[in-house]
Amino acid sequence: MTIAAPDLTMTTAASLDARAVSAWFSGHKVLDRVSLHMPAGRVTALIGPSGCGKSTFLRILNRMHELVAGAELAGEVLLDGVDLYDSARRITDARRQVGMVFQKPNPFPAMSIYDNVLAGLKLTGRRASRQTRDDLVEECLTKAGLWHEVAGRLRSPGGALSGGQQQRLCIARSLAVRPRVLLMDEPCSALDPTSTRRIEETITELSAEVTIVIVTHNMQQAQRVSQYCAFFLAEQGTPGVIVEHGPTEAMFGAPRDRRTADYVHGRFG
Ligand SMILES: Nc1ncnc2c1ncn2[C@@H]1O[C@H](COP(=O)(O)OP(=O)(O)OP(=O)(O)O)[C@@H](O)[C@H]1O
Fold first, then answer.
1. Closest ligand 1 atom number to CA of residue 53
2. Of 109, 172, 200, 248, most Cβ neighbours within 10 A?
3. What ipTM was assigned to the predicted interfaces of this complex?
4. Coiled coil located at which positions (predicted)?
């Protein structure tokens, strides 16, 4: 099997900086000059009502927005100070460094658990020994909090796992390419409370080595998992902006803007 050789030197969490990011779909502006610093090795939660541009912003952070027909963007995204959109940087490199986990778990259902973890590595086409692959699979499943549940059945299909296990398998798959940032778009919205707790524990454990940016509609979850928070809002047909951002404790305990207070206390959205 030809497979990418993982670089086993540990990568370090990187900061992300969005600078005056605007976005359009078919000429319709949905984000207006959004700037946000997402510190390395921390969890930043993006909150706000439906349709205010959180997912669009997240997709801009790993260059997925540009794949949508009719989508445009302006502004800059810096990964540890280096332009993610620099023409010299390959899009696959940007995606390797900034991984993504989606709302609905999307493992390859017929592929084994083992091969699912390694699926992303095939991108670079280098070879790795069997031992290296085994070690990487164990390491990533352990970090994703799934190893003990699947160690005895690594050859079973990924689709045979429960929804929560599938989501942790997707996290393990993302980790195998050693991302420096992990983006999570409502990763628990399709999961039951117990699975949600497991994913939240995983997020907390991972955050020291990979920067995490998570979109969530669950205010308790934002408070449990994040150290920083940004509140997005698109008022009356205007494009989405960040109304307020800062340490999560302050955003929930002493918001400066009345609209933030109304939202975090469940008065709208
Ligand atoms: N592929 C697309 N084509 C056209 N418009 C889009 C597309 N994706 C998103 N939009 C529009 O962009 C705006 C922002 O959508 P986005 O999904 O980023 O918001 P969101 O805050 O993540 O919403 P939610 O919380 O419901 O997921 C919305 O008005 C949406 O209709």
1. 18
2. 172
3. 0.97
4. none
